[in-house]
C-alpha cells in the first residue's frame, strides 16, 4: 500500500497518473495547501519542503516504510519499484531522465510563475506576465519540436510524459493557443484517451 499525500494540482496529478498506470494500491491523504496543511509538523517530517506530492510506501526496499518527496523523485522511485515506464537500458533511461528533468526544471516552475502572474495575481504586472508567458511559449515550442515524428517525448510512453501532461493541460491559464503547437495538441489528446489517466484526473481532491 502506498500513502499519497496529495492535492489536485499538476504536481499531484503526476503521481495519481503513475499510480493508476502502474496499478499500484494507494490511499490518498488530502493536504489542503489552501489551508496551510503543508506546514503541519507531521507532513513536514515526510516532505520537508512543505509541498505536495509526497508518498510513503509501506513496503519499501528494506521491507520497511520509506517516504519520498519531490514529484520527479517519486516517479523515478515508482518506475524502479515496478519496472514500468522507466527503462533499465542506460541509453533509454537517459532519454527519459533528460525530459523528466526538463519538466522538473522548466515546464513546471516557469508555468507555475505564469499561472501566478497571468491568472492569480491581483496586481497585473506586464513585465512579469510577458516574461513568464514568453518563457512558456518557448517551452511549448521545444516540446512541440520534440514530438514531431514520435508519440511520446522519450521513445516509449514513460514517467516523463506523466510529468509533462498535467502542466500542458493548463494551457488556457498560460496564454497558450494549442493550435500553435499541433504536436502538443495531438499529444494531449493521445494521453488523455488513456483510461488510467482519465481515472487519475477524475479524482476530486482539491
Ligand atoms: N518541485 C516540487 C514542486 C511541488 C509543488 O510546487 N507543490 C505545490 C502544489 S503544485 C505545493 O505544494 N505548494 C504549497 C506551498 O508552496 O506551500 C515537486 O515537483 O514535487
From TrEMBL:
It holds the Pfam family GST_C. SUPFAM superfamilies: GST C-terminal domain-like, Thioredoxin-like. InterPro entries: Glutathione-S-Trfase_C-like, Glutathione-S-Trfase_C_sf, Glutathione_S-Trfase, Glutathione_S-Trfase_N, GST_C, Thioredoxin-like_sf. Residues 1-86 form the GST N-terminal domain. This is Glutathione S-transferase N-terminal domain-containing protein. Belongs to the GST superfamily. It comes from Acinetobacter courvalinii. Residues 89-206 form the GST C-terminal domain. The gene is yfcG. Coiled coil: none annotated. Gene3D superfamilies: 1.20.1050.10, Glutaredoxin. The lineage of its organism: Bacteria, Pseudomonadati, Pseudomonadota, Gammaproteobacteria, Moraxellales.
